[in-house]
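Morning run. Coffee first, then this:
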Amino acid sequence: MRIRKAVFPAAGLGTRFLPATKAQPKVMLPLVDKPIIQYVVEEARDSGIEQIIFVTGRGQRAIEDHFDISFELERVLEGKIRDTTDKAKRESLEAMLEEARGISNMVDTAYVRQKEAKGLGHAILAARELVGNEPFAVLLGDDVIYGPTPCLKQMINSYSRYKCPLIALERIPGDEISRFGVIDGTLVDERLYKLSGMVEKPKPEEAPSDLAIIGRYILTPEIFEILGSLPPGKGDEIQLTDGLVELLRRQVIYGYEFEGRRYDAGDKLGFLIATVEYGLRNTELRDDFREYLSNLDINTINGTDPFPKKKTDSKQ
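And here it is:
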């Protein structure tokens, strides 16, 4: 059975970005000109996903509004298009209208409320009825991955061959490995590992490998039964990693070392790095932005003049 549905857990409080996230979800923070989560939704769409199930919490209506039709916005843009006689302006407005409509038509969406944030495993369990009895993907909205082939599509291609649960892997430097779940396993195919164990946030010297679990999963319905009977783990929450450890006792799980560049947009530094690199990829901004960065004098940032002086040729 092919992967048609994807679960997006998005009920987190985003405390690392306070106060910016006091009144809006972390995944709705803008990364250049799109909210973070839209990049991940586009990855799912481009990987063949037909329905996205958002698991949201209190105060996260902005996610639903963003992927819904905005009649008022569309009417305003249509009126401006009718009223303008400037060709260039009309083309710009038409592009805006097409973009707005494209977001609401991107993919079929459904929403389920996680009344209390009790961990990633609990969030996935909340989507049980909407997923049904079929394999599904899970994508974490603050892991943004750039590459020529969408990360999830790479994983679906591998799943179509092995028909087993699959998790995305990334090699992480030793001093950072304690922030991640880490796998123990054996390479069985190109970039594909057969797992023999998983450890959540090990000390660097105790990590079984440098292959960390990141925010992309393909799971089978068996995970719901496990999560439903799993006792709370670290932080008194239902941890997905604990569920995967139990699932591994019952069936084979593979890990796939994806190709691409991952940005941890749920971390302040990661978010800033993503903003710079996506800004340099943006065809509208990249030339001016590159010039700004090339002329930037870091020593002036904390001084009285934060704006760099453009370099000029001296004339004799």
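The domain at 25-67+106-270 is CATH 3.90.550.10 (Spore Coat Polysaccharide Biosynthesis Protein SpsA; Chain A). Good start to the day.
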